[in-house]
Design a protein that fits this description.
6 copies of one chain form a homohexamer. By secondary structure, the first copy, chain A, is α+β, with helices and mostly antiparallel strands. Chain A is built from 2 helices and 4 strands. In chain A, the strands form 2 sheets. The first copy, chain A, has a two-stranded parallel sheet. Chain A has a two-stranded antiparallel sheet with strand order 3-4. Chain A is elongated. Chains A, B, C, D, E, F: This is 4-oxalocrotonate tautomerase family protein. Chains A, B, C, D, E, F: It comes from Candidatus Afipia apatlaquensis.
Amino acid sequence: MPIVTIQVTREGSGPGRTSVTAEEKARLIAGASQLLLDVLHKPLESTFVVIEEVDTDNWGWGGLPALEYRKQRAAGGK
Amino acid sequence: MPIVTIQVTREGSGPGRTSVTAEEKARLIAGASQLLLDVLHKPLESTFVVIEEVDTDNWGWGGLPALEYRKQRAAGGK
Amino acid sequence: MPIVTIQVTREGSGPGRTSVTAEEKARLIAGASQLLLDVLHKPLESTFVVIEEVDTDNWGWGGLPALEYRKQRAAGGK
Amino acid sequence: MPIVTIQVTREGSGPGRTSVTAEEKARLIAGASQLLLDVLHKPLESTFVVIEEVDTDNWGWGGLPALEYRKQRAAGGK
Amino acid sequence: MPIVTIQVTREGSGPGRTSVTAEEKARLIAGASQLLLDVLHKPLESTFVVIEEVDTDNWGWGGLPALEYRKQRAAGGK
Amino acid sequence: MPIVTIQVTREGSGPGRTSVTAEEKARLIAGASQLLLDVLHKPLESTFVVIEEVDTDNWGWGGLPALEYRKQRAAGGK
């Protein structure tokens, strides 16, 4: 009866995309469910997967909003 | 000081509805708070309830997006 | 396919108890599942309930650890 | 590697605002990350912060939707 | 910067085991991180995975504590 | 009515400590509650803080259990 929660920023994975696509979500669901089957022998029908998309403003890393932190890392030393 | 989090798919509960209504949310809040009062004697004013509506694309069951899994169950054996 | 998460402090609900009992947990599970059936017509077998017991040291209210806050409320004005 | 999740109602913090501003979110992210650095010596770049804004309809307190509960408290005794 | 949370019951995956092993946890962590890399091109070092083990008493399904529900399914029709 | 959830590994913050101390927890609770008061004018008594301590085996980063990943970072290039 596992529950897998996947939190990601609401962004596209490539140029011209602004969010996670339905096809990518389906692959995340399939992959996470399969992982629980492979490692812990949990039947597919007993696993729930919930995907939460979080606006980039609402995600912080390094003490900064996510996009600023990425810019800083890209520019700066680290 | 309980916190009750209720995650449901963003869908209507009957024909012509496309989401959980404000009245249904109020009933979920009242019912969950009452449950904590009845079972654990927690006063109503010390319980928080948070309802999270999840797009059907973002909910997986049986290794599939939720709507596909339901279709498969309705059609198939189980 | 609802998921209901119930977070409570790890305490007994009456004298001589130091934690939530298995019988109380079963009542929380039954009640939460029934609520989703009554309000949103979700079949019992599609609802998961997860109970999380949190040490009182790890729960804060009013800017204080929970037990201190309760003492202050009991003693003080509010 | 801490994760700090901040759940708040989707409301403005003052007249003329209807939601948490980007500047307020940045302050929450900075403050929460700094807190983990100060108390537990966690480097800023190892802390994630996720802000979840919850519609007021979806938040319950005192057995009621949040806005109704506030009205009742403002009006009533407590 | 994804966060993957995996909630499972605290049980062994085979005879003679009473909990998820460290080796199984490492496989869950590796697999979930790889999934985010494959599907959304998230670098491994930007993904956090948190595994939460939940006592079987604290997990409900079908309106019952998980072990009772399993017994009922095994015995009964469904 | 904010809820702040702080997830950290179950470790001491200095030599000779194997877990977060009660005093550190109290500081996290005070600081998080104050932050919500300062930034969003939320009264202290309307904020809940929940601290979740996660075993280091159960926390993944960089595709590895947390302690292995730290070792690798300390040893290796990054």
